[in-house]
Specification:
With about 280 residues, this protein is of the alpha/beta class. The chain is built from 9 helices and 9 strands. The longest helix has 16 residues.
Amino acid sequence: MELKKAVKKQVKLRLGMSGASGFGKTYSALLLSYGITNDWGKIAVIDSENKSASLYADLGEFQVLEISAPFDPEKYISAIKYCEDAGMEVIIIDSITHEWDGEGGCLEIHSKLGGKYQDWAKVTPRHQKFINSILQSKSHVITTVRRKQDYEMSSEGGKTKVTKVGTKEVTREGFEYELTCNFEFINDKHMVNASKDRTRLFMGKPEFIITTETGKKIIEWCNSGVNEVMEAINEMDKCDSLEDVKKTWTKYLHLQKTESFLNKKEEMKIALTKK
């Protein structure tokens, strides 16, 4: 264990958008993504919503990867990797609801295994790998998720009473806590509020409509702080032995998918081998 001074480092965005169907999640995600990249060609939509993303093709020449049932976690994981390998700067997953509650999704997988509590031991690791593929992606990732009416049951005068208690996201509970920001759509006028906001740019502020300017604000926050990739490359550049290269490579496990860091490692291995 070691205490270190807290330092803000540059990060990749992990942003969620939740709302009822027709509230503008896909459209808003595209506008925000363009604010981040300023290049439609670097935006990819993993579309499980029956080709809904293509309805906005007039916005710009963004990329679409359409997926269909069964919506198992592995299909989403493969789609994310495919977009990463294609050099996409922003990946929009529209939507993650199907991975949980769609045909072939986690709830159906659990049911087919028998639907018992212990059967989650086989499903949860698969779902967690999907979540990890989002959190560890080398691209910015925006996820959309549907919301549905939630109910609460209580007993009153010996009778069971069912009460509406707002809406809930149709995905596994707790996903929101993994994100940088989560925007909740509150009506069909595309108005949102921030239900979670580590950037502190939107929390406690009045409801607003997402635009490209929203993306510009967020990417400025993401890019502020220490560039950890350059920090790792500089540290690798100072290695005097292959053992030092190995230690540095292990120290930055979470950056091993980064092409520039990988190239520096190979460069140092060649240079030190020739000594």
